[in-house]
Design a protein that fits this description.
Blueprint (H helix, E strand, L loop, with lengths): L17 H8 L4 E6 L6 H14 L4 E5 H5 L10 H21 L2 E5 L5 H13 L3 E7 L3 H7 L4 H6 L21 E3 L6 H14 L6
Parallel strand pairs: 1-3, 1-4, 2-3, 4-5
C-alpha cells in the first residue's frame, strides 16, 4: 500500500526552515510514540503529559488510535495489512507535526515491531527525534481494566484480530522508555517523560 503511484511529483522546499519554526515556538519538535496493549494506559499518560506540557507553555498535540480511525484512517480495518498502513500514515502525520516544531504524542497499540521501526526510520532519515515509549503491563492487568469492554468481546469471538488475544503483540526490543503503569503513579510516568524531554533539549530552541 506504500507504492508511489503518482508520477511527475517533486518535493518543493520552502524558505522557512525547521530551525526557524523551532525558534518561533522556543522548543523542538519530536514524536513520542506510545505503544502497548489495549488498556495498558497509553492514552492516559499521553493525556496527562499533554496537559503538563501545555501548562508549561509548550505546543503539543496528541494523536490517538480511535480518534484517527474515526477520520483519516476510517477506511482501514484491523487486518495485518491495514494495521501496517494505519501506522505508516500516522508516522507521516507525526513527521509533519514534528517539522512544524510540535511535540507530538502518538498513542497507538501498533503491535508489529516492523511497523514501529519503519516510523522510527522515517523520522531519523529526516533528522527528527523519535522516542518509543513502551507502556508495558501484563496481559491479565490490561484485560482486568478493559475500559472499552474489548477483551470481553474478543474472548467471546466477537472481535477478530484482537491484539493479545487472537493477534500477537511484538514488544519493543530497545525502547527509549518503559513505563510499567500498573506499578507507577501517573505523576511518576509524566515526570520521567518530562525529564527525558528536558535532557534531550526539546523544551527550548
Amino acid at each position: 500500500m506504500t507504492e508511489q503511484k503518482a508520477t511527475n511529483v517533486h518535493w518543493h522546499e520552502g524558505e522557512v526552515t525547521r530551525e526557524d519554526r523551532n525558534q518561533l515556538l522556543k522548543q523542538k519538535g519530536a514524536t513520542l510514540w506510545f505503544t502497548g496493549l489495549s488498556g495498558s494506559g497509553k492514552s492516559t499518560v499521553a493525556v496527562a503529559l499533554e496537559q503538563a506540557l501545555t501548562a508549561s507553555g509548550k505546543l503539543t498535540y496528541r494523536l490517538d488510535g480511535d480518534n484517527i480511525r474515526l477520520g483519516i484512517n476510517k477506511n482501514l480495518g484491523f487486518s495485518a495489512e491495514d494495521r501496517t498502513e494505519n501506522i505508516r500514515r500516522i508516522g507521516e502525520i507525526s513527521k509533519l507535526f514534528v517539522d512544524v516544531g510540535v511535540i507530538t504524542l502518538s498513542s497507538f497499540v501498533s503491535p508489529y515491531r516492523a511497523d514501529r521501526d519503519l516510523v522510527r526510520e522515517l523520522h531519523e532519515a529526516a533528522g527528527m527525534q523519535f522516542i518509543e515509549v513502551h507502556v508495558d503491563v501484563p496481559l491479565d492487568v490490561a484485560e482486568s481494566r478493559d475500559p472499552k469492554g474489548l477483551y470481553k468481546k474478543a474472548r467471546a469471538g466477537e472481535i477478530p484480530n484482537f491484539t493479545g488475544i487472537s493477534d500477537p503483540y511484538e514488544a519493543p526490543l530497545n525502547p527509549e522508555v518503559v513505563l510499567n503503569s500498573h506499578e507507577m503513579s501517573l505523576q511518576e510516568e509524566v515526570d520521567i517523560l518530562l525529564a527525558l524531554l528536558e535532557q534531550r533539549g526539546l523544551l527550548s530552541a
